[in-house]
Write a structure and sequence with these properties.
Elements lengths: L23 H10 L14 E2 L11 H7 L10 H16 L7 H5 L5 H9 L12 H5 L3 E4 L2 H19 L6 E4 L4 H9 L3 E4 L26 H11 L7 E4 L12 H13 L4 E4 L3 H11 L8 H10 L3 E5 L10 E5 L4 H5 L6 H12 L10 H13 L3 H20 L12 E5 H4 L11 H13 L1 E2 L1 E3 L11 H4 L5 E5 L7 H16 L6 E6 L11 E5 L2
Parallel strand pairs: 1-10, 3-4, 5-6, 6-7
Antiparallel strand pairs: 2-8, 7-8, 9-12, 11-12, 13-14
């Protein structure tokens, strides 16, 4: 068979959702009435929505079929057992999944088989204890989304740390804390610290995108070592590694870097956690570009990747292909369990908080339908044809922008393209405190009906931070591409609109914060005012 030089399609559409025809004048009125907030603008009035890829995916037919099997029981719904075993399949078993979900989808009626293989199956030692072990030493916690898992983790360990060491300051190093992660850490009095890869802003040739990848999402190993040496290992309750690195332009993290961080963590007896939202996409980059992994399957790579860590938080709204769901998981009797179980089992403390805030442990704030869709999605998201098409679409988006001269971070990551706003406004009088990225998003929505998200000085509160803290703030606008939603026509329209604005960048307004400048996570809720010339 001849190589056509174009990707093979991996899916076809079954449902069409028509886009409403909205005039510029109507969008201008809505922008004004919603205080020019990207998060407050009615989604139904948009042409394209790149605000987030979180929970915005189009689910597959297998996920929709699984929804019908959702069990809404308050205690121990069937989906709970299926999801926990799907977690083991995904993060522990590699190429040997058990897929007990098929017992339910196939209508299995053999009660003994259901008892032995699903409902009364006891196991221990990994990220998910089963049976009685999940009761005595819980280590798997279902929640609605990733930020809930972050809250559950940090709001539980902070009081333990402060009780044991009342006069110490504590730091959470990361290759790039995302906004909610940083906010949840800071809210409980801990200090988030970023160690971005030194090569993040290095130039990258567009013709090499399909050939090599510098893994710009890596953690700065030298910086991490020096920080531990300076502050002391006792001040670091855990090390966090985000895959892919959403704050750092969605860049992937290499297996080599994960191993190196893991070795540092083990050397200092510090738990290593992943912010694992885009683990499947990260695994695809490892397969595609890292030596020794080209012939390995995605499930095998995922299994190895998670073998180096002690726990993880995750939003399944990303690499779960689900519209809702998240979780916190840690290894049974691992470093985290040992270090935080001095005053009672840490899993019991976490479960108490989970139940009091999100609901009974077997549904964790999700409906039974959500749980079944999520469990099915975990098997869908590691399929290579899907991942190839997903990442190729984002790659094409970046290529087309770069070819138009728009300063996009290269190579692109797996879920989004990022505009370098410092370069975007080069040659104009736009300063960092003018929030040019926000002005760009306002004009993009006003003129073209396209929504994007500023992830820079506005989102990360540049004006509220010290000069030292400002060093960890990048200046990007992110276009997060929802999974299985858009086609080439949508991407081409976005490229044309972004290019047109770039060519008229001197007309983009500076922006001031009209309400809520001091609010935490203010980009979700504060008011803005563009200052038109």
């Amino acid at each position: 068979m001849y190589d056509l030089g174009v990707p093979i399609p991996s899916k076809k559409a079954h449902v069409v959702r028509n886009i409403k025809e909205v005039s510029q004048a109507q969008r201008e009125k809505m922008l004004k009435d919603t205080e020019y907030s990207m998060f407050s603008f009615p989604a139904d009035m948009l042409i394209l929505d790149f605000l987030s890829d979180s929970g915005t995916s189009t689910m597959t037919d297998l996920q929709w079929a699984a929804i019908i099997h959702g069990d809404e029981a308050y205690g121990r719904n069937r989906g709970y057992y299926i999801l926990l075993d799907a977690i083991r399949d995904t993060f522990e078993r590699g190429n040997q999944p058990k897929k007990v979900i098929n017992l339910i989808l196939s209508g299995e009626t053999n009660v003994d088989r259901l008892m032995n293989e699903l409902y009364l199956n006891s196991f221990e030692g990994g990220f998910v204890n089963g049976g009685v072990h999940q009761l005595k030493r819980p280590n798997a916690f279902i929640v609605p989304q990733g930020r809930c898992a972050e809250y559950l983790l940090f709001s539980t360990i902070a009081p333990i740390l402060k009780k044991k060491y009342p006069k110490k300051e504590f730091y959470i190093p990361n290759n790039g804390h995302f906004d909610t992660t940083e906010a949840n850490i800071a809210a409980v009095g801990l200090h988030p610290v970023n160690f971005f890869s030194a090569n993040l802003f290095e130039e990258f040739p567009i013709d090499k995108i399909n050939l090599t990848n510098p893994f710009k999402g890596n953690m700065d190993i030298k910086g991490l070592k020096l920080f531990i040496e300076k502050e002391g290992e006792e001040t670091i309750p855990l090390i966090y590694l985000t895959i892919t690195n959403n704050t750092a332009a969605g860049q992937p993290v290499s297996m080599k870097n994960i191993k190196e961080v893991s070795e540092i963590a083990r050397l200092h007896d510090i738990p290593l956690f992943l912010d694992a939202c885009r683990y499947a996409e990260n695994a695809y980059f490892i397969k595609e570009f890292e030596q020794g992994y080209h012939n390995k399957s995605i499930p095998t790579i995922v299994k190895e990747l998670f073998s180096y860590v002690d726990g993880f938080t995750i939003s399944f709204k990303k690499d779960g292909l689900a519209n809702m769901g998240g979780g916190l998981f840690f290894k049974d009797k691992g470093v985290f369990h040992r270090k935080f179980s001095g005053d009672g089992d840490i899993g019991i403390h976490l479960k108490e908080k989970q139940i009091s805030t999100f609901g009974n442990d077997s549904y964790g704030g999700l409906s039974g339908r959500d749980i079944m869709a999520l469990a099915a999605g975990l098997y869908e998201v590691v399929k290579e044809p899907y991942l190839r098409e997903r990442i190729t679409q984002v790659r094409d988006f970046a290529k087309k922008l770069s070819q138009k001269g728009v300063p996009v971070v290269l190579p692109p990551g797996g879920h989004a393209i990022y505009l370098n706003i410092d370069k975007f406004f080069a040659g104009t009088d736009m300063k960092i405190e003018d929030f040019g990225g926000v002005g760009f998003t306002i004009e993009l929505l006003r003129y073209y009906g396209i929504r994007a998200c500023e992830l820079g000085p506005f989102a990360f509160e540049w004006d509220n931070k010290s000069p030292k803290e400002r060093e960890g703030i990048l200046n990007f606008v992110r276009f997060a591409v929802p999974r299985n939603v858009y086609n080439t026509n949508h991407i081409d329209y976005a490229v044309a609109a972004i290019t047109e604005l770039y060519q008229n960048k001197e007309k983009i307004p500076k922006v001031k914060i009209s309400r809520g400048a001091k609010l935490r996570l203010r980009h979700f809720q504060s008011g803005l005012l563009p200052l038109y010339k």
